[in-house]
Write a structure and sequence with these properties.
Layout: E1 18-23, H1 34-47, E2 72-77, H2 88-95, E3 102-104, E4 112-119, E5 125-136, H3 140-157, H4 161-169, H5 184-190, E6 200-210, H6 215-230, H7 239-249, E7 258-262, E8 267-271, H8 285-292, H9 294-305, E9 309-314, H10 317-329, E10 339-344, E11 358-363, E12 381-385, E13 390-392, H11 403-416, H12 430-435, H13 440-447, H14 455-462, H15 466-477, H16 483-498, H17 504-527, H18 542-547, H19 557-562, H20 569-575, H21 579-590, H22 598-613, H23 631-634, H24 636-643, E14 647-648, H25 674-677, H26 686-708, H27 712-723, H28 739-769, H29 771-775, H30 785-804, H31 815-830, E15 838-839, E16 857-858, H32 860-868, H33 876-890, H34 893-901, H35 904-910, H36 920-931, E17 949-958, E18 971-977, E19 980-981, E20 985-986, E21 993-999, E22 1004-1011, E23 1020-1029, E24 1035-1044, E25 1054-1058, E26 1060-1062, H37 1067-1071, H38 1085-1092, H39 1103-1121, H40 1131-1136, H41 1141-1150, H42 1165-1177, H43 1181-1184, H44 1193-1207, H45 1214-1228, H46 1232-1241, H47 1245-1248, H48 1258-1269, H49 1280-1283
Parallel strand pairs: 7-14, 9-11, 9-12, 10-11
Antiparallel strand pairs: 1-2, 1-6, 3-6, 4-5, 5-6, 7-8, 12-13, 15-16, 17-21, 17-23, 18-19, 18-20, 18-22, 22-25, 23-24, 24-26
Helix pairs in contact: 8-10, 11-17, 20-30, 28-30, 28-36, 32-33, 34-36, 39-41, 39-48, 41-45, 42-44, 42-45, 44-45, 46-48
Length: 1288
């Protein structure tokens, strides 16, 4: 639809599309509001009460003056417009969201202004501006009906004042003017009606429907119309003349121009930004900041950016609209893509069940506090209580980048305009006192976001006002000039004389709007200055791109995040996953084939301008805050437009009306003559001709493009599908609220949730597995920890929304945890001892020794107990997220949910029929998508809850067939991980199995094992050590395959073992302790035995393979340090694991090594190192040394120092362990490239190495030295388990 596109015909170029009147239909009389009845029926259904009493819509508990009655569109002009069809039900509901309300002469009957918008399915918007006032009821039939209703009400309640007053508190039609100080007598007076004594008034609404949000102009126009009705003197012309004028003779101002048109008494000015400026936003941001304060607003703004559910809450409709429109205007260059209903009519309260991101406004009932408001879901909800200056934020909420500096910059702009950053004082306690003063009307008016047109009158009333004086005093104290504030008073006098085109207040609001929006826009320009470099242009033409849109990545997220400053990452990693960011990038890609989106065009031009003026190094990001520097110049164009008017519309004029039409009666809005308002002028209006000829020219161009472009219907289909990815309903359908339509809406939600689940799980798999990511331009196939955490948090949000959909009764903030608790309670009652455990493998993991790791019994309830035992988690939302993370890490999430759904009686009790969890087919697909996540390994629980106490189980498995399974010595173990170590723990003798508790060690990396060499059986041949995390179930195997004992193997009494994660797949593989591709490989110590044994000679690598292995090991270390610090993993594995640096250098030193046995004793590399150190320390080295060794004297001293320190360590780590330690220390202190030439120059090399050995090949040695030098620039930190007991 093109109703929102100016220039596509004469109708869309009109300032207003419709003029509407809503009110009471005197012919049908008083009818209960069916929509309110539907709402009451749904509420009764929600709370499980009987529905029979609510179906009629009658509510005898409430005073008749406080009930809602059916309103009706009494008239609208014109009848219909092709571009913007008139939706009577929606307009009626939004013009009078509470339905008809009645007053008597003792009630406050001030006119109230509010606005609304209707979002169409294609995302375009229509705005409505409404003035509601009270008109005397002249129909005897209606007055009599009201009297009868009162008699029934009094009969029901026997005249109880208290009952009447308390019930009126719950009414949707409660007045905002009755404060706590209202006396009971006044309340009684308000709640009664006597036809002989009282005058009855009914609400009536007049409304303008426009394509663009010219809020200020429409408000002035409607107030002038109302003034004409209530004035003692009739207006200069019949009202039809003014309405005909604005409907047919006032055009939209062209972009970059201002327009003056005429109301009943005064001219009205509006202006429209040019195509190079920020889009039109006429709602005064002044009021938004006064209502919320800067800090609250920035927090809500961040929630909107991250597409959380945002609920605005206020008694006043215009406040809801002002805050919603204000926040969405600040999103530039992004646009809200989800449900957007700034005013949610009472009958649509069930729409808060929507399991999608939304931005909605809900009218609060007077006297109802936050605790009484039952919301279906709160896990991901941002609740904004506008009237009480209070917000509730979701948990795990990332802050906006440079938040403090950002708030400071906004505050400085506000202070210049005399607005305190903490919000207006009328939000505090003084508001209640002010309400009882003579300025009551003014305060109420201000509260509604309305300011009277006559500035002079305002300031006459404000003289001596404490609020204004406090504002001025505050501004002066902060050193801000208040000349502009003071000037407002004098300018109002000047206005009368000089007749400026717009009042000062309007100009100041417009200037403030522009400056605040520039500050926000500047932040995005700074943050996304280089976004274009990361856009993936993968399609050749629009058709192929639209066809494959869902399967394609359009933005290189990993590379973009790696280019950002560290403090920005928590926010940006979430934000680039949102639909608004995806749509922004989609628009960028489509701009190569079609016209650029207007907001994108403005944003790109700003980035281009910034690059021209700010020469900075490309891709070098800085978190230093840069203020917006164009605030003053940004307001110049708007000042010029408002001071000097570009266009003036035709004046209202007499119409061709019959005699007697247009009759004036004070206080009553006349019955307008439809014949003169049904259609526009047919004369040769220049504006109509110009737009018509433009339209004809565009039609010809369009016909031409239809022939040469792709099939239009197909293209439109693709376009709609592509743009709807990840989106759901933008707005509930207001025109039909039958149960069938509500069911259809819920069905759309179910489909949307399933689609979102499929997209999220697919994204998690692609990112984790990496293959598709590499093909699309990622440098590595590794997902970063930050991205992974963001995707898992996003999955947690989705699961909470699924569990919140269709809840019968809400319990607690987390619907998922509430369901789990009720399941736990039922299961524990049924079978307290057993929990129907889910086995992850056979009963015992058998090894050749008969020893094994006992079975870990896993069940949904057992995992819940683990989470409940973690004292660090304080909230239900936190517990639900921890449980999801644990289940994901254990690869049982889908299995647990299947177990949860097996209790169908519980699901039926908790959820309504339309809920997602009661749609069997969709539920099966949902479980299937979650099951796919078992294909990858997550450590999302272990890596997040780093401070909790975790139970571990360790089993030492010796090699029994060599008859040394049992040792008489006292064994010990120390387990280390990425987060710490357990400390040395004694293992019970001859048991070889133990459990221990310690703070989370993270992913396990090493295990030190040893014994004290006591007793007759002191030699011990260990196959491996198994350690299991008893919460996550992760089991690590630490292979050994070597002896521990004096006089055997290399004489070691302790060894440092490197761990590998065992990933069980099937029972059979578990029985064999399978080695399916582990995430981190361990060293096979058997390899070292084969090198030094006679039988191992055939397995030795050749020279080229050894050099390649050294290069690969060093390359892995370099890559480790080029990753972000939080994502590096264990350096110990890269140093000491299989294919690590120690292993590669071992191969290098063993090549050509004369390891023949002397008296059946092995010779180790450490023997060569010891002899070399002894040679360098001896006094004969100077005489025997060849030329060049003299220069190595300082290096030789350091080498000898290290070798001695390793030899004298109290630890019994054996010869291979000592060589490993030497390599690790040499790498840490950047000495390896100096030590290798030293060993090469040692004369002992000819005795211990063969001629063809790599160590005697100069080229090979130089090559290895060059490779080792590449790690010199990195700071290597060794685990304490490696360097314990070394004194240098």
């Amino acid at each position: 639809m093109s109703a929102n596109v100016p220039g596509s015909g004469s109708v869309p170029c009109r300032f207003a599309h419709y003029f509407v009147i809503c009110g009471i239909d005197t012919e049908t009389g008083l009818e209960p509001d069916e929509l309110a009845a539907l709402y009451q029926w749904l509420e009764a259904d929600r709370h499980g009460r009987t529905k029979q009493t609510t179906r009629t819509g009658e509510n005898f508990d409430q005073s008749p003056l406080r009930r809602t009655f059916k309103s009706k569109v009494l008239a609208h002009f014109p009848e219909n417009i092709e571009w913007n069809p008139f939706d009577q039900d929606a307009v009626n509901m939004l013009c009078m969201p509470k339905g008809l309300s009645f007053r008597t002469q003792v009630d406050n009957r001030d006119p109230q202004f509010h606005s609304y918008l209707i979002t169409r399915e294609d995302g375009t918007r229509t705005y409505g501006f409404v003035l509601t006032f009270y008109e005397e009821v002249t129909s005897k039939q209606i007055c009599t009906a009201m009297q009868t209703l009162y008699q029934m009400h009094h009969a029901e309640h026997a005249g109880s004042v208290c009952a009447s007053s308390s019930c009126s508190m719950d009414s949707l039609a409660s007045s905002t003017d009755e404060g706590d100080a209202t006396s009971l007598s006044k309340l009684h007076c308000c709640s009664s009606y006597d036809i002989s004594r009282d005058t009855l008034y009914a609400s009536k609404a007049i409304c303008l429907i426009t394509p663009l949000p010219f809020m200020q102009a429409c408000r002035k126009y409607l107030y002038q119309l109302h003034q004409a009705v209530t004035s003692q003197q009739p207006p200069p012309l019949p009202l039809e003349s003014y309405i005909h004028n604005i409907l047919y003779e006032v055009p939209l101002p062209p972009p970059g121009r201002s327009l003056k048109f005429h109301g009943v008494y005064e001219p009205i000015v509006c202006q429209r930004p040019s195509i190079n400026e920020l889009p039109l936003a006429d709602y005064p941001l002044r009021h938004v900041f006064e209502l919320l304060g800067v800090e609250n607003l920035v927090q809500v703004f961040t929630c909107v950016l991250l597409e959380m559910q945002v609920l605005l809450y206020s008694q006043d409709y215009q406040r809801l609209m002002t805050v919603a429109e204000g926040i969405t205007a600040l999103l530039f260059p992004f646009q809200w893509q989800h449900v957007y209903v700034p005013i949610l009519p009472a009958s649509l309260l069930h729409f808060l069940d929507a399991p999608v991101p939304y931005l909605m406004g809900l009218q609060s009932k007077e006297g109802t506090d936050r605790s009484k408001l039952e919301l279906p879901q709160e896990a991901n909800l941002c609740f904004v209580d506008i009237d009480n200056h209070y917000i509730e934020l979701p948990e795990d909420f990332p802050q906006f980048p440079n938040k403090l500096e950002f708030i400071q910059e906004i505050s400085e702009v506000l202070l210049v305009f005399g607005i305190p950053p903490e919000g207006s004082l009328h939000c505090s306690e003084s508001a209640t006192q002010l309400k009882n003063l003579a300025l009551n009307d003014l305060v109420n008016d201000k509260k509604n976001g309305n300011l009277p047109g006559d500035t002079l009158a305002v300031f006459e009333m404000l003289q001596g006002n404490a609020t204004l004086e406090r504002l001025q005093a505050l501004a002066k104290r902060t050193g801000v000039s208040v000349g502009q504030v003071d000037g407002l008073r004098s300018s109002s006098f000047k206005e009368k004389e000089t007749r400026l085109q717009c009042d000062e207040e309007e100009l100041r609001n417009a200037m403030l709007n522009v400056q605040i929006r520039e500050v926000f826009a500047h932040r995005f320009t700074q943050m996304f200055a280089d976004y274009e470099a990361f856009v993936i242009q993968s399609a050749q033409d629009l058709e192929s791109w639209l066809t494959n849109r869902e399967q394609m990545q359009n933005f290189d997220k990993a590379s973009f995040l790696s280019d950002q400053p560290e403090p920005y990452l928590p926010f940006l990693s979430h934000f680039i996953e949102t639909q608004m960011f995806a749509t922004f990038i989609d628009n960028k890609i489509m701009s190569q084939w079609e016209d650029k989106d207007p907001m994108l065009r403005v944003f790109d031009s700003r980035i281009e301008k910034m690059r021209m003026y700010n020469v900075r190094i490309p891709n070098l990001r800085s978190s230093i805050y840069q203020k917006c520097t164009i605030l003053k110049e940004s307001t110049q164009s708007i000042e010029q437009r408002l001071m000097k008017i570009d266009h003036a519309a035709i004046h209202p004029h007499l119409l061709d009306m019959k005699i007697g039409q247009g009759r004036y009666e004070q206080g009553f809005f006349p019955n307008l003559q439809s014949d003169v308002l049904a259609s526009g002028p047919t004369n040769n209006n220049r504006w109509v001709n110009r737009t018509a000829s433009t339209q004809r020219r565009k039609d010809r161009l369009r016909q031409h493009s239809d022939h040469i472009g792709l099939d239009n219907d197909l293209r439109e289909k693709y376009m709609q599908e592509a743009r709807s990815i990840g989106k759901n309903l933008r707005q509930p359908k207001l025109s039909d609220l039958s149960p069938a339509v509500i069911a259809q809406t819920n069905w759309k939600f179910v489909e949307g949730l399933l689609k979102e689940c499929r997209m999220k799980t697919k994204r998690m798999l692609v990112e984790k597995m990496g293959h598709e990511a590499v093909e699309l331009g990622h440098g590595e196939a590794n997902i970063t920890g930050l991205e992974e955490n963001t995707l898992i948090a996003s999955l947690c949000d989705l699961l909470e929304r699924i569990w919140s959909h269709g809840l019968q009764v809400k319990q607690g903030k987390s619907a998922l945890w509430s369901h789990l608790l009720q399941y736990q309670e039922r299961e524990e009652k049924l079978e307290p001892p057993a929990e129907s455990p889910v086995s992850l493998g056979p009963e015992r993991r058998k090894s050749e020794t008969g020893l094994s790791m006992p079975l870990l019994r896993v069940s949904l309830i057992q995992d819940m107990r683990h989470i409940q035992n973690i004292s660090e988690i304080k909230t239900d939302v936190g517990r639900a997220r921890a449980w999801i993370r644990l289940s994901l890490e254990k690869k049982v999430l889908s299995q647990h949910f299947k177990q949860l759904f097996s209790n169908q009686a519980l699901t039926k009790k908790l959820y309504k029929r339309y809920a997602f969890l009661r749609c069997e087919e969709e539920k099966e697909q949902f479980l299937y998508h979650l099951l796919s996540l078992n294909a990858v390994d997550y450590f999302c629980f272990t890596n997040v809850f780093t401070t909790i106490i975790i139970p571990y189980r360790a089993v030492i498995i010796p090699i029994k067939k060599l008859s040394n399974a049992i040792t008489t010595s006292n064994p010990w173990i120390c387990v280390s991980g990425e987060l710490g170590d357990s400390g040395v723990m004694q293992i019970p003798k001859n048991v070889l199995e133990m459990t221990f508790e310690c703070q989370n060690l993270g992913k396990l990396t090493t295990a030190q094992i040893g014994h004290d060499n006591s007793g007759i059986l002191a030699k011990w041949l260990v196959d491996c050590v198994m350690v299991r995390n008893e919460i996550s179930g992760h089991t690590y195997k630490f292979p050994c395959g070597r002896w521990l004992g004096k006089g055997i193997d290399d004489g070691s009494l302790e060894r440092i073992l490197i761990g590998e994660l065992i990933i069980p797949c099937t029972d059979e593989e578990l029985g064999k302790q399978c080695r399916t591709p582990p995430q981190q490989r361990s060293p096979t110590q058997i390899r070292r035995l084969s090198i030094t044994s006679l039988g191992g000679r055939n397995n030795k690598l050749n020279a080229a393979q050894i050099q390649e292995a050294v290069g690969e090991a060093v390359n892995n270390i370099v890559k480790h340090f080029h990753k972000p610090e939080k994502e590096r993993g264990s350096l110990t594995i890269l140093l000491c694991g299989e294919n690590g640096l120690v292993s590669a250098l071992e191969q290098f030193f063993y090549h050509g090594f004369k390891s023949s046995r002397i008296f059946q004793k092995n010779v180790f590399i450490w023997d060569f190192v010891e002899k070399a150190a002894a040679f360098f320390e001896s006094g004969d080295q100077i005489e025997e040394a060849e030329t060049g060794v003299e220069s190595l004297r300082p290096t030789s001293k350091i080498f000898c120092q290290y070798a001695t320190a390793i030899n004298v360590t109290p630890r019994n780590i054996g010869k291979d362990g000592k060589f490993q330690l030497l390599v690790c220390l040499g790498a840490r202190d950047h000495l390896l490239p100096q030590w290798i030439p030293l060993l090469v120059e040692c004369p002992l090399i000819t005795r211990m190495y063969e001629e063809q050995a790599l160590l005697r090949d100069r080229m090979a040695v130089n090559s290895v030295i060059r490779v080792l030098q590449t790690v010199q620039e990195f700071s290597i930190t060794l685990e304490s388990s490696l360097v314990k007991g070394i004194d240098l």
